């Protein structure tokens, strides 16, 4: 069965199982992440206090850790929740937002990578290069790194960490220990909405809640976000702009069907 | 005068008085809650630090306490603000998001119910059953409980706590010490947007800011949310989805008129 | 060159330089502020922990401090970041949300004004009067103060603090040490969306990231927000309301051109 066929089936699995996706995430894009999970058919829960994260995981099908806004309180919760998820066999997805921009982010990512086994790590090229220990220029949370050699970088990091590694950009790359693929869906307007990276990570978490094939889950989340971006752009009229694009994006996620994915998905 | 006539008049009262609705709420849906209050004609204020919650209440017409994301700092603020509101005669509305899902949520709700008199408590069936001490299965913050016996459960809890109790679901139930009503407005797409429960609670708070009849305030908030959901759905075209639905929902709240409410409200 | 010509050129400068605008802001409107900066062509970053704010400033072209939701942790970060920005020559913009409503807000604003030099301070009439030490009635975070004598108040405060002072309302006023101007763009629906004040401040921060003329940056941010509000309102059809207005607002910001600004801007 083709990859597109396989991820098409995951759409139905999410709507059937309605996986609970526990997030410890930033306060900037948290609402959009929750609505993404719902639009796809999952059930989001955001809980970040140390006193409840382990208990909440008892019901969860996946845990998303996003370091977009950090503080001492939530860092502790991330570590504790990540370890507990590992014990329970709940897949953990990492979005290392802005890693490298500050020591706090870099050290937090390092501690998380040391203490927690991640099923998938998704970042932009700057973030993934930083995690891979490569030389990279950082400016805030938006990537300014060259996208050359993405496949090699993703593969090497996947092997080093034993996680699926996804790099999103003009072309997206997903690598596991023994596979790699490129996804060519997407539209550059996606970069003009804050948190589309975070939202992709939340979609990966949603799919990781219904399959143990995390390589497939990562491809599903990224392909569906990119394709929805394309469709959102196509519906824009001349007098519309980024506000309507974002609304359309959520429309397209909620309407995404196996048929659309099979006919428009560009995974190789 | 019919209930629909009475709640129709409250719409004008809100626009005339512009009640300040103080929220101590979660960071997931806080923006939508603020925009809901504004769309209805009220004035929202979100302030959660212990150092300012009592002072902010001096101007407030209602206080909404929503436990969607808890931490030690905000729990203290909730208790202190709730007690102060009781002293000042400011009605307090509770949204016990995800109570039962974790000990932190359950214990926080228990402390709040012990220390604060609530004018209205609004939750989904899982949450209300949990507060009523009934046996219930919990999974995250979305309800999976059976909606049978809602009227009996709401009435018993209203009597036990001396609060108006509202259960929202396929059919909504509102009970006071001596009255009960069912509301049949709504659309299932409302469950696919995060925070429509929170937003209903914020609308109840807005109406509780202009009437001492909190039973009526609860009916008003819930009916208007449900009816706006219906109207939002009716305007959807075939190529639209959940993003446009949410936009339409805010449109309909802001346009809600006594006429629409009288002709389309389903309160019995 | 006219003021409108000058601010028209800033639009291109923002898209060319993509200034990083560091925010320490409230959790209510943070997502909209980030999306505003992106829609205009800047790059937003939200980081509020004391452990990283100074380091993040190393890349920043401007710092926006918004006191919409305060707590002890973020107050320290605001003071430290503001001082560091002063050292680095990064312009700091203050949005004193709800100052006067509580002692915490009033004292925090006072400390910030004592410890940090602000390039621009933007508030509604209640907030600016409060900062100017004038007698003013406060209710929550929405202004209820008279808009009389705005020019005198703004000029006096600009001289006293050595900052550009902007008062937004039915007519907006911007004053520097030696200049003052009035902006007549805008639509009253802007007041029905939470955070349009915060978003204006974020736009000012974005423009302050590409020019050292902070008087001009303030005029640019406020004029573009007001004009986008007008255009957003003009596109509304009869069956639409505040939800669509907000979407249109982001559309218009992202589409704003020098031509539109030159033909429709009302700056005198």
TrEMBL record, chains A, B, C:
Keywords: ATP-binding, Kinase, Magnesium, Metal-binding, Nucleotide-binding, Thiamine biosynthesis, Transferase. Substrate binds at residues 46, 195. Its cofactor is Mg(2+). Its EC number is 2.7.1.50. Gene3D superfamilies: 3.40.1190.20. It catalyses: 5-(2-hydroxyethyl)-4-methylthiazole + ATP = 4-methyl-5-(2-phosphooxyethyl)-thiazole + ADP + H(+). ATP binds at residues 122, 168. GO terms for biological process: thiamine biosynthetic process; thiamine diphosphate biosynthetic process. It is an enzyme of class 2 (transferase). Catalyzes the phosphorylation of the hydroxyl group of 4-methyl-5-beta-hydroxyethylthiazole (THZ). Belongs to the Thz kinase family. This is Hydroxyethylthiazole kinase. It comes from Gottfriedia solisilvae.
């Amino acid at each position: 069965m083709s990859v597109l066929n396989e991820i098409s089936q995951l759409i139905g699995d999410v709507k059937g199982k309605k996986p609970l996706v526990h997030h410890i995430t930033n306060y900037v894009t948290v609402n959009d992440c929750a609505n993404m999970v719902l639009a796809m058919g999952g059930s989001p829960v955001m809980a970040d206090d140390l006193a409840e994260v382990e208990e909440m995981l008892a019901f969860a099908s996946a845990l998303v850790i996003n370091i977009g806004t950090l503080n001492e309180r939530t860092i502790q919760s991330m570590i504790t929740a990540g370890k507990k998820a590992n014990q329970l066999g709940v897949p953990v997805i990492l979005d290392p937002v802005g890693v490298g921009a500050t020591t706090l982010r870099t050290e937090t990512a390092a501690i998380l990578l040391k203490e927690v086994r991640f099923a998938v790590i998704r970042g932009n090229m700057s973030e993934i290069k930083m995690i891979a220990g490569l030389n990279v220029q950082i400016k805030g949370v938006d990537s300014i790194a060259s996208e050359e050699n993405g496949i090699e970088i993703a593969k090497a990091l996947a092997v080093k960490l034993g996680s699926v590694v996804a790099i999103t950009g003009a072309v997206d790359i997903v690598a596991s220990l023994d596979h790699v693929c490129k996804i060519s869906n997407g539209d550059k307007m996606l970069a003009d909405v804050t948190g589309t990276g975070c939202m992709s990570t939340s979609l990966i978490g949603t799919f990781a809640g219904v399959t143990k094939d995390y390589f497939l889950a990562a491809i599903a989340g990224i392909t569906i976000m990119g394709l929805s971006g394309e469709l959102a752009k196509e519906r824009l009229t001349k007098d519309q702009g980024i506000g309507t694009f974002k609304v359309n994006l959520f429309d397209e996620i909620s309407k995404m069907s196996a048929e659309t994915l099979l006919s428009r998905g560009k995974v190789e």
